């Protein structure tokens, strides 16, 4: 490991302490927030309503009060005074969403899903304003986007009628994110907001929704560009292109805009070519056009990158201390934050240029495959094999020549297309094992001979796929070639645990070795290994989404069933500790023993928590390797993979939600303890001099305002939550009992757990009455009537309420009639709620439900209380 000679010896130790403090705190925040969501979704009935609400509100209040206290206590420490409160408020924001989900789950409110996210965004806004944290603002923007998307989804038919097509939804989503992007840029210039991630994420959302609407909308030729969506896309592309080239240069956003142009041109020019020459031959000039556009865009971006950027405000560059996040006190006054390893030589274009060229190569490959499939040039598998070998050889030859960038793109597309044709040619002519071996050798040969990073990356994906197939065959020897597709489609718990998890672990260790080996070798050899390492990395992330974790108690049983799988599963949990030791051991002379050995030992303890959730351990390994090997892209990928995995992990059914909550929460608590040790141990061991006691500066007006906003936001959240609880408890106590017939099914809800989707029989009768007494037929719309209304109910001889009539207001009605409010959503009638939440694992208990018991207030508002069986007895 190389350490710059211009730095102090203690600066690297300080940098590692900063990294450990930052990563333990934020990882603990994410895991504890995920644990709270899983705990709410588990719908644990062993706790009363009071215990659940008090526990969650208490935890939320502790986080908010701690954030307010930290902001005041750390006001004299630059770079820390906002980072720790920002992390705590981000956790409070996640807990706020869990509290709102618990409210809807407990009282079966039946509120529209978008309302939960809308209230979440409204109540989170004061904390976002007070925190000034990029993470909290991104959470708020994500919640607002989800609320808007859900709202549009429930009113898709309304927008279809009003605007004449579904493109209006894209316009609204793009406009929302464009406004957020402009607001972020203003904040960056005036209040020094970070521009590292926020603007790029918002720009990606803005561009992607417009591009997708043009690519897949029901347009004809150039007419699509003349619609509101086409005009909006042109305006956004030109406007953002001008600003991020001349105002504040951001080559990543410019690369996104170029990718959008390539995708839209694929649709527009493709339709035009098909009109001129109907047939598959249009795919060839279209592929050439896409590659030419990508080469031009890559040259443009590289030219801009070589030019000196325009002067920007200091706000656009986040200070080093703020970037480090939750820093500990400096070891030495003025000690810089070290760059832990020398950056690798940059021989290839920047990553965003490579992504642009990779997109072009993918699209061109697809077009070439379409041409081959439908042109009749190749009609047999043997012909595909021969053509694939020819294309591979031709593509490699072009790449090894002095051809220009356009022809190099052609060579990349030809070589990858040739590999796909070879795989097709082998599909029925050889065994599964032999096919995997041949693909592995073929892709390795192309990787070694083709001196192009993009082709090597694509070939690396094939190497990873073939290696996964060989491991799969080794773990499941009975797997035969003819049932391969069925084995992929017939996904179950055993396959997730005994196949995909070992495959993912093997790939993860190979990825870590490739990155570490490339850093150690350096020079051209490291440059040659990078595409393979990234190909393995992406493949592993796809596999771990399918993998099922196990707990430590299940390891002995797995050892008895399959020792190899047990060893591989354990190796996956130990990967973060091995990655930490790999990057810390070469620095043992400049680091303390506490850092060198303490970090791997702590990760060994945490390995118990990674067993049920292997993706968390993998993400932490990428974060450690990225920081230790000075590869920021790898560290960022680790953070993104963690966020994605936590979302996927929620829907994995092999581990119960309550166990997920316990494992994730336990890991979070341990991480918070480790965060405290990062601060405490250097002082106890006297490896860090205690900071000189200085009086805290006076509380500024801005800090006072932020503190009041934090506390005021907490008071608002508690008032709204407890006010809702009081109203619903009052309705449950005084509402009239109504029993309705229903028909359930069983999915899983976002954040609220297992539920059965309800369709009350009364809803069908209300729909019939809205249509004038006729049954609804396909294509009939009930949206032209008053959107909401009331149905009058009367009890039959069994006590089941039956609809009598509908009316727009709650009055008039007789004493024997019970008014019940209904809503029109998605061209259907919703009465009270469309879901009943029940504890995880009790689906069979509620499958026999035939009726729902409600409590209805005098104004027609109602809550679903419980499910009843055929005999009208509670389940």
From TrEMBL:
Which residues belong to any copy of the DUF4401 domain? 350-679
Determine if Transcription regulation is one of this entry's keywords: no
InterPro entries, per the entry: DUF2157, DUF4401, GDYXXLXY
Which parts pass through the membrane?
Answer: 20-41, 53-72, 84-104, 116-140, 160-184, 196-216, 222-244, 251-274, 356-377, 383-399, 457-476, 496-517, 529-547, 567-585, 597-622, 634-651, 663-685, 705-726
List the Pfam families. DUF2157, DUF4401, GDYXXLXY
State the UniProt keywords alphabetically: Membrane, Transmembrane, Transmembrane helix
Domain DUF2157: from-to ranges: 17-137
**Which top-level group of life is the source organism from?**
Bacteria
Q: What is this protein called?
A: DUF4401 domain-containing protein
Q: What organism, scientifically named, is this protein from? A: Achromobacter agilis
